[in-house]
Amino acid sequence: MPDSTTHAPFTYRRLTANDLPAAQRLSAAIGWPHRREDWGFSAHTGSGFVAETAGALVGTVVCWKFGADQATLGMLIVAPQHRGLGIGRTLLAYALDEIGKRDITLYATDAAQPMCDALGFEPCGALDQMQGAAFRPPLVALAANERLRPLGASDAVQLVELASRASGLDRSHVLPPLLDLADGIALDRDGELLGFSLFRRFGRGFLIGPVVAGASPDAVHAKALISHWLALNEGALVRIDVPHGQGLRTWLTGLGLAPTETVVRMRRIASAQTRSEPRRADGSLHQYAVIAQSLT
């Protein structure tokens, strides 16, 4: 797209680092907790577009490309006083043009779902945002040859591989900068890396995600990776976003993390020929918590 395009009275252009303070204020105005640093991570790893009028930023959207055939969308915001004027649809058009012929995944709120329906997105799951500050998780017992250990610099390549296989998205671009921002813990069995979880500052508190592990009885591996962070941060505001079907919502609720929002996972296939997500090396590897809703 050109540097800027005007559809009176609005101007559309690419998101730049100079827009981050205004973007953060816009998200805060609709109740989203994102800090300027959270916006900075989105801008650094994705491609964004903004809408302006009279010098004020009134809309945003960000997209992320994962390899040659996958992408995600998020951070679609329109200032309440300017809704219903086509801003959101125009921003999405710019993002879709940027993405090109890739399959696209996003999480849609109830308000955004009709527009996504009209653009050819179809529901394919859901996700619960869980949040709390009062928890004291019980010890999660692992097998005798399994342990949790801090991540090391030599783990980076394996982490990208595990995260890519679990999500079905190429994480080689987004995970390294995330590791610069987050603390991490690995699940290890006799020296073999089985899974991991990351913990970082986000919004008004902290966020756990992604959480990647293989299937295990009662999801014990995922629970161990999550409990580690909860035990270290009792009293802190912690959030975790968990896809439906992983069996963690009831367990997390029992620990004091309440569901605060449920969003619908939607997907649009780039071509008429239906394609599934890339085949994983291990079909039993799961993403029990996402990096962020926008990055899925």
UniProtKB/TrEMBL annotation:
The keyword Translocase does not apply. It comes from the Bacteria. Keywords: Transferase. The keyword Transferase applies. InterPro entries: Acyl/Acetyltrans_Enzymes, Acyl_CoA_acyltransferase, GNAT_dom, YitH/HolE_GNAT. One of its GO terms (molecular function) is acyltransferase activity, transferring groups other than amino-acyl groups. It holds the Pfam family Acetyltransf_1. Gene3D superfamilies: 3.40.630.30, 3.40.630.90. Signal peptide: none annotated. This is GNAT superfamily N-acetyltransferase. It comes from Paraburkholderia atlantica.
